[in-house]
Amino acid sequence: MAKPEKRDEIVRAALELIAEHGFHGAPMAMIADRAGVGAGTIYRYFENKDLLITELYREVEGRSFPAIMEGYVPEAPVRERFLHLSTALLRYFINNSLEFRFVEQFHNSPYGVEFRRERLLGKMEDRFVYRELFESGVAQGVVKDFPLPVLFALALGPILAVARDHILGFIALDDVLITRTIEACWDAVRR
Amino acid sequence: MAKPEKRDEIVRAALELIAEHGFHGAPMAMIADRAGVGAGTIYRYFENKDLLITELYREVEGRSFPAIMEGYVPEAPVRERFLHLSTALLRYFINNSLEFRFVEQFHNSPYGVEFRRERLLGKMEDRFVYRELFESGVAQGVVKDFPLPVLFALALGPILAVARDHILGFIALDDVLITRTIEACWDAVRR
Amino acid sequence: MAKPEKRDEIVRAALELIAEHGFHGAPMAMIADRAGVGAGTIYRYFENKDLLITELYREVEGRSFPAIMEGYVPEAPVRERFLHLSTALLRYFINNSLEFRFVEQFHNSPYGVEFRRERLLGKMEDRFVYRELFESGVAQGVVKDFPLPVLFALALGPILAVARDHILGFIALDDVLITRTIEACWDAVRR
Amino acid sequence: MAKPEKRDEIVRAALELIAEHGFHGAPMAMIADRAGVGAGTIYRYFENKDLLITELYREVEGRSFPAIMEGYVPEAPVRERFLHLSTALLRYFINNSLEFRFVEQFHNSPYGVEFRRERLLGKMEDRFVYRELFESGVAQGVVKDFPLPVLFALALGPILAVARDHILGFIALDDVLITRTIEACWDAVRR
DNA sequence: GATGAATGAGCGTTCATTCAT
DNA sequence: CATGAATGAACGCTCATTCAT
Questions:
Q1: Rounded to whole angstroms, how far apart are CA atoms B84 and B91?
Q2: Residue A1 confidence (pLDDT) above 60
Q3: Cβ of A149 and B157 within 8 Å?
Q4: pLDDT per position as a tens digit, A136-176
Q5: Residue in D136, D107, D109 with CA at minimum distance from that of residue D120
Q6: Taking the mean position of all CA atoms in its chain, how far away is CA C152?
Q7: pTM value?
Q8: D52 — phi, psi (to 5°)?
Q9: Which of A125, C178, D56, D136 has a beta carbon 3.0–4.6 Å from A65's, enabling a disulfide?
Q10: Closest-approach nucleotide to residue D7, Cα vs C1'
Q11: Can you list the domains of chain A with their CATH numbers?
Q12: Which residue in D136, D132, D150 sits closest to D188, CA to CA?
């Protein structure tokens, strides 16, 4: 087994275990086991558990970006672009529930606090598109004039909530419901 | 120190420590210490740590109910009632950040999963008012016809998000911003 | 078993194991085992392994003092006093080989370095008597005018060496040989 | 890089690291690194770490021999020869502090015990000269009639002690002090 | 009823050694 | 021959839980 494959196996195993059982339920030995790797091997790729988790987070965070940018038309009207991004994001969460649950775990953990600010300021890739979108929306007078974090809350808060509920089996989001939900989010941010 | 006082001290200490440092940062010995109680004493009131935490959760969950019900007029129009409840809830979170942070921690933890269903079904006190409100709103045609979890997501998702951001110091919610944010949430759910 | 007894058992077990097998050969679990105590119990008495070892050292270092001071006559001539102290010290080492070997291990270890200075400056109890003795000896012109560390080296270097050899079974020190050896040490320091 | 050079690099690296940081601070990987060699390569030259260290010891022990023999006159009087050897040895220790510190570490470690006997019996090169010297000294009646280990202790114990103190910076040995110290050692062994 | 000393399973991490390349 | 990635046993340490007092 070549080098990058082992790293990937470790990352995948950590993602799975943390998504399924939380940070408590993912000891290094268990991650190693699930990755088909010796316990010490993890430390060849990651200095310690904290760094494994934060690197995993960065990796996972980046993965949604291409998904939401596919078919994105920067010249389209703000509303269209909002609907596109948000629909794609919700779909991505639903179709990648491991990633979604890991990220949720991460955000509500000691690790996540330091990452919050950069997310709020729209410094991460996917947030950055949203940021630009909101800023031009506000400038054009089609989006309510709120501080960025409030707009993020209005747009993404419900998306995260319904994604969570869907993944846990409390609702079944189909195409129609997704579309309507995203449109309701638009109602929240639009002027 | 009489019996119920000890129990209360333990609960208070656990709330504080978990809110401030997360579940990791709140060993039983530390909780006992902060409560001014012997380590073994906790086990006279709570069978084990899990039960301490879930009981603490139930208690904390119930506390917001009186706060949001104060001045609530069941006969008022749906919109008015929604604005009242949501504003009161957001204010409660902001003014009781320990409780808020604990509940957030709880929801994103192995403990929280089993509690989600009853929340989603509006079985907890405060959710129950919301549930009735949404149901009558839908019946009257003033609220979008969504499954309950989606309405909860649209209404409460942003509230939780802005409360979090406020408590962490990323935004400063004043009366005006609170009102406008809640009105935006109404835009999301109203027809 | 009452509290101080457990602490003493731990200290004794650590002393034995380190004396017999060196620092490598004395894992915490083994110390706990030999002390008849749970592994975690050690940490109720000592914050960590380093502190267990340095506290053990301080304790052991102090033990030789009463032994060498017994029958010490501060008014006696320098030579007499030197012979008394050194003989008593060598006897103490021989009769307490665990302590001796532990201290030897300690001095030649990362732990020991910081303690060396205070020993050299005669700041420890037993060294302090020697220091006074040498200083008055130099003042009276009966001891060679050397820096203190050199006098310590001349007096104690051979004592440590023969104690080591005796304990390891390479020589058999009897009363006559002890006396003659100490007198030879006096020859080294006397004018 | 040819074979013997690699071996030398490994030996040098091990010497440096152990002298500087002790046995704890010299993992095989670090030795390999410092030697500019792969970790596995060490095992082509040394069966395991213990053997690397003991071989290193034998090598280092031998190095002082030429230094002390330079200018040694076997026909000179015992006193002269003693002063020559001991002065040269002390100087060697001071000028080769890495070797000195390694050897000290070694002696006070599980490794060192088995080597003590042959040293005490004067079976190693440099000890052998001393042994002969002492034996002829005793025969001539100019050296005290002690068992060999006691004579070694009286002569070398102080030398090791002052070398240690000098290297650690607690005293500054200059030519005068060296000479006087060695003469004091002679006082200890001479009749 | 209350205590807190004692416990030991389980954690994250290190490192001497092996072996496929 | 040389490599260095991989290994896993063993380490120091934590903490939920128990139980003698």
A1: 11
A2: no
A3: no
A4: 999 999 999 999 999 999 999 999 999 999 998 989 999 99
A5: D107
A6: 13
A7: 0.89
A8: -55, -45
A9: A125
A10: F2
A11: 1-46 (1.10.10.60), 63-189 (1.10.357.10)
A12: D150
